Amino acid sequence: MLLNPKYPPAPTAPAAPVSTSTALPQHAHAPVCACQQAHPAATPGHRFAPTVGVVAGAVAAVVTVGVILTALLVAVTVAAISVAIVAVILRSLLAPPRQR
Predict the structure, then answer these.
(1) Domain boundaries, the chain
(2) Could you write out the DSSP letters of every residue in 51-92?
(3) For the residues 38-52, what does the mean pLDDT come to?
């Protein structure tokens, strides 16, 4: 209970404004120059942020699993070498004195 984080409240989207007035008729005028013509809306480009986050998470998971498996392999190797050394020492201690 000592390290209980306090999260800020989640932001909420503002409600869409409701217009009750009637729309005024619009008069069509020819543009004076080319700069006043309506331009098509720019399409948003590809967003790479979610992909980068997924790739970074996958890389972190693979590295973590690799480190854990390597540590386990080293632990098993050290244990096997220790057991082999103990077996050789016990064998020499339990052998009759003539065979030493």
Answers:
(1) 51-95
(2) HHHHHHHHHHHHHHHHHHHHHHHHHHHHHHHHHHHHHHHHHH
(3) 60
